[in-house]
Amino acid sequence: MTRTTTIAMAMAMMTTTKFYLCLLLVLSSWVEAQTETRNQTEPTHNLRRHDDVMMPMKKPRIINGKEVLVPRYPYFSLMYGRSLCGGVLIGPRLVLSAAHCEDASTQFRIGAFENPNDGEKVNIRSTIVHPDYDVSRFDNDIIIFQLETDVNLPYIQLGSDYVRDGSYTVIGFGDTDKGQDLVLSSTLQEVELEYVDSDKCDDGHGDRDEVKEDMLCAAGKNKDSCIGDSGGPLIKKGANSYDDTLVGLVSWGRGCAEDGVPGVYSRISYFYDWIVETVCDNYADDAPSYMSCGLNPSFFVFTNKPTEAPSKQERITSSPTKLPTASTPTQMLTRPLLPISPVSTLPDTIANNTMFPIDLRKDIEFVAWTPTVELQDCQGDCDTDDDCRGDFLCFKRNGEAETYEVPGCKSPELIANSVDVCINPTARI
């Protein structure tokens, strides 16, 4: 082989190598460009988008909870209308929830878990709020809903034993971001929490004597129920849904998953007698069998001067009213329902044998866990956000002509119920 031939072959190899290097660079740039484009076009799912609740979200998580992948909690009940709240089926036609959720919607979605429109839709017929409910302090924060029709799904049994310790699970569609933005989950979430002694819980809330005997507390490291989870169940899990026991209802708290500040729940064992007596007196035909209405008169305590019965109000389903606002010094905020996560060990700041660092605890704004979010205005028909003026967003109703309820619309009955509507994502009442 001549020197000239050798040089020619070497140059040819160099040319081929340069070609493949250039091709590799071009392919690398193309992949990077596609990734950047995809990241720019995928929805960011911030809390301002109410339509995100109607569509699947990527890897939704509820303050470090986990997604419920199977219908494990058929008794879970969702109110998704003027605001977002949870509830729990305790009989074929009876749902228990937080009293401050009374006007969240005119219907329930029983067994919802894949999305907020999942489950069996049932209208509300009547309600009974606890007669001693205090809207300003969330004392006796409990309500009984009677449904218009029976629900053919398993219901949960009430826990009558006083809870003093243990691990419990809370579920809901509420806020998944403990930051300023409200990020609703598109799927049911669950998280496991640990019981917190009432005295330590009250210390965590500033030693203000706010945690009463009708309440119980639970917390986990960076885990919590949050805005929108109000009224949802805190349960003691059994081998399956039939063995689960209801021990609490999401009621109130300060912030979400704040270190050393547990969430507060209505204690079911405290209200057990009231629930059974109220159901037997007003909804005996709808009572679950274990309540034995009319079969055990010695269960009730009779006095010469009976307590005034709570008023039973028929629901007005055509025009839901505003949620009650608490007369507290701080502004009441609201958010969506709760999710749950794997079992956790209690951090030192929450353990019952540890004092809360009150002096170091930052001042946290009081938060009521149901959305009082009411949007100021609606602009009308839209297909995408680009069809809306200013910061308004297109609220997707997916063409389902089944409800007039649009978050915050002043006169939703004037809007065709199959039309997607531009709504203001930032207004608060």
TrEMBL record:
The keyword Hydrolase applies. InterPro entries: Peptidase_S1, Peptidase_S1_PA, Peptidase_S1_PA_chymotrypsin, Peptidase_S1A, Trypsin_dom, TRYPSIN_HIS, TRYPSIN_SER. Residues 1-33 form the signal peptide. Residues 62-280 form the Peptidase S1 domain. Keywords: Disulfide bond, Glycoprotein, Hydrolase, Protease, Serine protease, Signal, Virulence. It comes from the Eukaryota. SUPFAM superfamilies: Trypsin-like serine proteases (SSF50494). This is Trypsin-like serine protease. It comes from Fragilariopsis cylindrus CCMP1102. The lineage of its organism: Eukaryota, Sar, Stramenopiles, Ochrophyta, Bacillariophyta.
